[in-house]
Design brief:
The chain is of the alpha+beta class. The protein is built from 2 helices and 6 strands, in the order αβαβββββ. The protein is elongated, with a radius of gyration of 18 Å.
Length: about 110
């Protein structure tokens, strides 16, 4: 379960940021997770519930924004959202080799005081 290590890193970054800015409380953490990042959002949420107690992140609102996969077709210049694991252009049927978004795993924002 690599979600545990991902969330551990995110919480460490959040706590470090709060400490560096003399914040006493973290209110909200927003993460962006891509559909093809290999991260299970449910497992990430579970990892947060396990790791956040007894830290500055205990009781924090966790928001996870899903980032859909977007591809680009070199053949016809079409940008598209794939509907299967095979990134086939819906316009011309060419397989895309260019993933524009969907791999994201990031701590996007925090609210502290």
């Amino acid at each position: 379960m690599h979600e545990l290590s991902i969330m551990d890193s995110a919480l460490r970054m959040a706590v470090q940021y709060a400490e560096e800015h003399q914040a006493t409380r973290i209110h909200r953490i927003t993460m962006r997770i891509g559909d093809v990042s290999g991260v299970a959002i449910e497992a990430l949420t579970f990892a947060f519930e396990v790791l956040s107690p007894e830290t500055q992140a205990e009781g924090v609102e966790l928001i996870i924004e899903r980032v859909p996969a977007r591809c680009w077709c070199a053949q016809c210049g079409q940008e598209f959202e794939p509907t299967s694991p095979i990134f086939e252009c819906p316009r011309c049927g060419t397989l895309s080799r260019k993933l524009l978004q969907g791999r994201e795993m990031e701590l996007a924002s925090m609210e502290v005081s």
